[in-house]
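TL;DR need structure tokens for one chain.
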Amino acid sequence: MRLSQLVRAGIADRHDDAGDVRYTLTSAGRELQPVVEALGVWGIRWIGEIGDEDLDPKLLLWDMHRNINHHVVPAGRTTIHFAFPGTPAHSRYWWLVIAAGQADVCDADPGFPVTITITITITITAALRHMIQVWRGDLDWRTALRSGDITITGPEEPRRSAPRWFTLPAFATVKRPIPSAPHQDGQITS
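>> reply
TL;DR here they are.
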């Protein structure tokens, strides 16, 4: 559903302050919020493994840009270059530009000096999958970095602090069930 549809439905209000557009929930939207959150928890818990065709770096970066801890990002402009080797050329490189408490997602080089580069060093599907696993809370930064699935290059201090620049989304803490094993007769046990 698009934001304009939510506005028409009375779920959200649109505010335009000199070109700075933002949306807020109406009382109807706030009343609906627990239902949407419950559906989100249910979906994360029971969705299972994400298929390769559903891995999308644009959606990943868009969500990451909304979950930046601006208090720990270095002052000034910070540019993070994400490289997903092996993905189609049109979706391989992304940038987050963070400045003055705001962040922009770019699919073309914004031309600013790069503070750090986050590069997934394995094949395309697995590479994007690992970054999404970190973002979903299925794999922690430390393990991904230690294993080499994710590498961060750049000046030492930003390189070491970069994982703390992001707060995982609320649904990343949702516990998922352990897959059940089938019985010998083909029945699934819980």
